[in-house]
Structures are given as C-alpha cells and as structure tokens.
Structure to design on (396 residues):
C-alpha cells in the first residue's frame, strides 16, 4: 500500500468494515438480460461474505505435496507478529514482502496478485508491528517501544532469521513496497549476505522532497484540467511542504495526487483495492477493522520518521538491487527513484520501468510484474541451487 495512504485509511477502513459485514452478490441465470430487472432476478440467491471468501480460498488452495500454506504468529521482540507463508514447492526460494503504509498490510489483498508468484517463490506476507493482524494480537503498550525505524528494521531482521532457519535457506529475496522500502534499504545494507537481492517497489527516497514533487504534480494537473476546487485547496497550502507539515495538508496533497492517477494510473480513487480487501480470504471482519485502528496508532509514532527519510546518499549496497518503477508514480515520485537508482553502487543492479503503472505496480500490471520477478530475480537463486527442478518439456 501507499506511503501516505494511511491519513485517510480510517475513513476507508470504516467503509471496508461495513462492506465486510454486508457484501453480497446477485447471481443471475446464464443468458439473463442485463437491462430491466425482473421478479425472477430480484429473487436470485445472494452470496454472503463467508461464501465468497470460501470460494476464493478454495480456488487458490495449495494441493502440491511439497507446498506450504501457513498463517502463523511468531513471537518477535516481545510481541506476536503474523505471517502468511504460501508456495507450491518448499524447494523454491523465499520472497519476503515488506508492506507499505505505515500500517497498510498487503496480506488482505495479496490474493489478487500473489497466487501466480507461488509457482516460483515461497511468498511471505508479514503484518508489521502496528498493522492488521499483528495490531489486533497485541496491546498498543506492548507494541509502542519498537515503533521506530530501527525497531521495525530489527523486527524484519528477526522475521528473516526465522524464515532462514525454519525453511533451511541461506538467502532469501527481500521485496519492499513504499514504506516497506524504508525498512528494506536499512535491512539490505545491514545484512547483505542474507539476500539474493533487494527488490524495491515504489521506493521512498526523500520524504519531504517527495511531498514537494507530488504536490507540484497535483497542482499542475489541476490547473491543466481547470479543476478550481483542487487548485484552490492546493494553493491554500503554499508554500508546500513548508516548515510544519500537517497530516491534513498531506491528506489534501495525497487526495488530488491520487485523483490524477499518481497512486493508480488511470484511476481517480482506490476503491478497487478496498473492495478487494473487503472480500479477503485471509482476513476476518475483525482483522479488517484493525487496519484503521493500527494506522492511527502507527502514524502517531512513524509519520515524522517517514517524512525525515533521506536516502539521497544512501546508495551503496553489497547485494544485488532490482528497482521496479511505475512511470506515473507520484505517491513516491518516480523521478526521485530514477535519480537514486543512477547513483546506486551494488554487485549488480537493474531498473524496470512499468509504462502503465503508478504506485501499485503489482496490481496494475501483474503479468509484467511476475515476468520480471522470474526473469530478473529468480535466476539469482537458481544459480545458487535454491529452486525446485525445472519443468520438463518435449518437442514434437
């Protein structure tokens, strides 16, 4: 999820909570007209949320004897932290996904893009301290001491150590998205020998500079489209970000940046994602409700550290680096990431631009995202012998 989405996530969480409690779908008979409603259509059976999630869960069931499908909580740094671990073959390399936010877990919507990954990787979704299932499993008092960049980087390190030991892996892949890239950069630099590669998606490079570029994009688009309301709201905050950046101002900037496709290309809002979350087979209604509560708690601790991020000169890595960039991303401005990539020094590095994506690349171009995971990342593990046997093909 997005770097600054959490400022309005509470409103969305309420919507999601209501949707989770009330979602239903009418199933029309095959060939039925989509025009005027008929009494027969009005009496069509309805699917409850439980039935929908059961269907989704059945559809993605892992049946291979060497597969893994676990939802577990692990005791890490004094609190219970939740992991989802899924893959078709334990011999495949592990890919740990560090979600965005802060406190915007990817686990509830991962079913919309992750299932094909599981043919090639054992994919781990981790609800970070203060997020989703992990928030719901602990008290705020227990979580608070570790709600720092350093504390959560250490949490991530403990997750990696658990995975390496439990699954007998020397190295894994580390994928950070948005806020998760903050933890990812720190962890990859601290322990490069643990990782085949650091995979950056929607990289946070410089928090305040990012706000400046995103604001300029939103204002430019608003003027170009004659959107008087947007222009008025954005200009009222000038100069932006200014010396004291408030959550309300971030919300206004983010609202209009999203409206003009800086979050999801060609979309004015994020409803498609929230709808998907509401039907998550991995999240209960209580888990969904915990997202908004965790966001408020996490922002109180992490907003200012996030704005203070400055990786402009943090460019030396001792493991390979792969950077995925959405060409229309202004949630974490693509120009900043491209400049940062040019300065990176690493054993190997690769930049992949996604022409029809903004910030949510794995949902916006899922096929191309997977293709580049397989062609650009997977060979690094295969060279080390960390992969299931290749498929057998025969020419006719």
């Amino acid at each position: 999820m997005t770097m600054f989405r959490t400022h309005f996530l509470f409103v969305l969480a309420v919507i999601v909570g209501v949707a989770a409690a009330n979602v239903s779908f009418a199933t029309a008979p095959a060939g039925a007209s989509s025009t005027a409603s008929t009494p027969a259509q009005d009496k069509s059976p309805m699917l409850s949320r439980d039935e929908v999630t059961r269907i989704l869960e059945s559809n993605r069931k892992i049946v291979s004897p060497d597969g893994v499908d676990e939802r577990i909580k692990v005791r890490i740094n004094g609190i219970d932290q939740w992991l989802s671990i899924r893959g078709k073959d334990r011999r495949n390399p592990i890919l740990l996904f560090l979600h965005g936010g802060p406190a915007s877990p990817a686990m509830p919507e991962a079913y919309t893009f992750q299932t094909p990954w599981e043919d090639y990787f054992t994919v781990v979704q981790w609800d970070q301290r203060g997020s989703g299932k992990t928030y719901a499993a602990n008290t705020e008092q227990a979580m608070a001491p570790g709600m720092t960049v350093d504390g959560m980087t250490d949490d991530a390190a403990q997750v990696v150590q658990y995975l390496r030991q439990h699954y007998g892996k020397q190295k894994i892949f580390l994928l950070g998205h948005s806020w998760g890239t903050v933890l990812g950069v720190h962890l990859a630099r601290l322990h490069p020998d643990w990782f085949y590669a650091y995979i950056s998606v929607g990289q946070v490079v410089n928090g305040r500079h990012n706000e400046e570029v995103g604001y300029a994009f939103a204002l430019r688009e608003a003027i170009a489209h004659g959107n008087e309301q947007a222009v008025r709201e954005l200009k009222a905050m000038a100069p932006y970000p200014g010396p004291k950046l408030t959550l309300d101002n971030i919300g206004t900037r983010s609202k209009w940046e999203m409206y003009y496709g800086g979050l999801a290309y060609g979309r004015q809002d994020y409803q498609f994602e929230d709808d998907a979350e509401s039907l998550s087979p991995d999240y209960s209604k209580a888990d969904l409700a915990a997202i908004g509560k965790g966001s408020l708690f996490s922002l109180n601790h992490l907003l200012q550290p996030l704005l203070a991020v400055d990786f402009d000169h943090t460019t030396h890595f001792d493991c390979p680096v792969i950077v995925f960039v959405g060409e229309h991303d202004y949630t974490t401005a693509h120009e900043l990431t491209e400049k940062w990539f040019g300065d990176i020094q690493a054993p190997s590095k690769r930049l992949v631009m996604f022409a029809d994506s903004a910030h949510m690349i794995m949902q916006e171009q899922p096929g191309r995202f997977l293709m580049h995971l397989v062609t650009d990342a997977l060979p690094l593990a295969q060279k080390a012998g960390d992969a299931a046997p290749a498929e057998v093909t025969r020419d006719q």
The longest strand covers residues 68-76. Residues 8-21+45-204+274-382 form a domain with the Rossmann fold fold (CATH 3.40.50.1820). The CA atoms of residues 156 and 377 lie 20 Å apart. The two ends are 46 Å apart (CA to CA).
